[in-house]
Amino acid sequence: MKNLRMKAARAALDLSQQQLADAVGVSRQTINAIEKGDYNPTIKLCTAICRCLGKTLDELFWEG
Amino acid sequence: MNHYSAGILFGLTVGVLVGLLFVMFLFKKRVLDTHFDERQERARGKAFQYAFSSLAISAYAYGVSDLVLGTWCDVLAGVSLCLALSICVFAVTCILKDAYLSLREKPRTVMTLFTLLTLANLSFGGVYAASGGLVENGVLTFRAVNPIIGVATLVILIVYIVNHLLRNREEETE
């Protein structure tokens, strides 16, 4: 399932996939794969992304 | 061991040492690097599995072919064929999963290196083929190692470029 919330949070900060990838120490393709729902990141990467985007885990990754 | 065999052994040892030194130099200059992210590590693990299976199957097939058909290539060429096949399987799987190059490797630099490797090895192969040293008495000799490596790096290069172009097109349409 696509992670549109993460994409929206990234866009709101005017960050490109590459900039977010550099900030959390992964490749651009990994950010792309997470947003497309092709890759399920570990909790470590999830928290790094949340910290970078100023969101909580619930806001970005919880499928309630 | 006669002089001819000793010469071959010496040549191969020097070749391997020079190759190792060159790879160490590339790591030192940060042309090559081994920092992968978690998705890439996972994808590479899967690729290793496929490559190991390919190596086991191809080595077995080579042994069987040698028994059934008789000696059609010398051992070094046969081993190189099996290794080249498994390396291709590993590389192609990694490329298709965007996990071939590490976070710090520059695609253009690495692919230029691959192009040079391909050209050098295929050129050596061409020279050996022209001089008739590639096949002796119907048996593929150890001199085939160069063209085998050349073809393997060419396959990796082509798959990388085609995949890169297709991904770019995909991302443009998204």
How would you portray this structure in words?
The complex is a heterodimer of chains A (64) and B (174). Chain A is built from five helices and no strands. The longest helix of chain A is centred in the C-terminal third of the chain and has 11 residues, at 43-53. Chain A has one domain: lambda repressor-like DNA-binding domains (434 Repressor (Amino-terminal Domain)), CATH 1.10.260. In chain A, helix 2 packs across helix 3 (28-36). Chain A is mainly α and 64 residues long. Chain B has two domains: 1-30; 31-173, no CATH class. Helix content of chain B is 77%, strand content 2%. Chain B is built from five helices and two strands, in the order ααααββα. At the A-B interface, helix 3 of A face helix 2 of B.
Percent strand of chain A = under 5%
> In CATH terms, what is the architecture of chain A?
Orthogonal Bundle
Shape of chain A: globular
Structural shape of chain B = globular
The sequence of SSEs of chain B as H and E is HHHHEEH
Helix content estimate of chain B: over 70%
**Interface with most residues:** A-B, 12 and 7 residues
What's the helix count of chain A? 5
CATH class of chain A: Mainly Alpha
- Biggest β-sheet of chain B, characterized? 2 strands, antiparallel
Structural class of chain B: mainly alpha
How big a fraction of the residues of chain B is strand?
under 5%
Q: What's the arrangement of strands in the largest beta sheet of chain B?
A: 1-2
Assembly status? heterodimer
Give the structural class of chain A: mainly alpha
Taking all Cα atoms into account, the compactness measure Rg of chain B is 18 Å
Mean pLDDT of chain B: 91
